[in-house]
Amino acid sequence: MDEADLDWVMSVERRVYVRPWGRRGFELALDEGLNYVIVRGSGTHEQPVGYVICRPVVDEVELLNFCIAPPFQRQGLGRRALKILLERWVEQGWQRALLEVRVSNPARTLYRSLGFDEDGVRPNYYPGDRPGSEREDACLMSCDLSVH
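Above: the chain's sequence. Below: its structure in token form.
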């Protein structure tokens, strides 16, 4: 991912999340992380379908934002993309992948199916989806990349 991708990324972010990241957050991520646009197709027929924002921390990689655009959800693209990322991280020598996700997020099932364990909970971590709604817990997950 680079600066040229940010308009598209921001348009998806606003459609998918009630509380989307701001553009400045993505700009900072470009400076300090491992960031990808997920594409379908090849060559001149590549079509962006999602994006991933990661942050390296010593020998671990933290998955901060993983998103598939709405028209491409529920087609197995997220599973394939995350599987490829995990394989790449193993090849690059990362020891562990970390993430946190809302406890209500159905992606937890995907993460578990690809080797992530639920390690704990951060109570009341996420703001509610609507003004005045209750906060939501975050589920902490990790994947031991040395066994992949």
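The helical segments are 6-16, 23-32, 77-91, 107-113.
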